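Input record (one chain):
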Amino acid sequence: MSNGETQIRYLPFFQNPEIEESKRVNIVKYQPMGRTTTLATYTGAESRMYNINFKITLPNVIDFQANWKQSTFATKFLTKEEVIKLFLVPTGLHSSYKQNPYWARKGNAQDFDDDFDITQQESNAGKPSTQDFGGTGAEGRTVREKTIDIIMYWINMIRSSALNNSKDTTFGPPIIRVNHGILHQDVPCICLDYKINVDDGAGHDLRTLLPRVIQVTMNLMEYRAGNYKSYDITSKTDRDNVVGWESIIGGSNTIDPIRYDIGKIMR
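The corresponding structure, as predicted from the sequence alone:
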């Protein structure tokens, strides 16, 4: 929180993620003498667990940046301009990024950009293509450098999901909200662990050695605290309260928090 406002950062899925959801019920079993079936007492349930696997592919993200004017990466409740702003503007990045945003320019003084473009064009089944790198020349290099930096920011966001605030340890790890289609809508979670793997077969950026394909796995646990009152998808806080089957029987047809502004539209 900063000045009473929630700090929000977005990590988009550029490729379809694999999301595995599970939930475990706590049951106490009773076996009365002479009875041929077991009696059970429901004592509650554990949080929903999410195992999420997704890839961050450098050429895909570069292509999006290079062709964002034609992109359809938008939603009914988020305009294309808002998506572009979230993606391109380094909001909230530390001061060193703002002062010298293109970290990808650092390193070896030799300029690998032209050789890098040619190498990749020749390896593309013999058919030259500049799509992977947002074009050639200075404009293409700027897109590439900007993309590498934003990918590094995403990776560090993932890393920070297991950290607290070292200056004020009363602030724990951030809440992660899972959004993907109609099945997972703004579900609040905390990160139990993450893994970052590299696909060496896909190659690397020659200057920074950033892998072209990064595989991310995150194990998340649903965290429904809210304000410990009744569940209400039209309220920014109440939507995170615990919910039961009465929500489905009552007609709301969801147990997810759902973005509270969308909830108002639905009602």
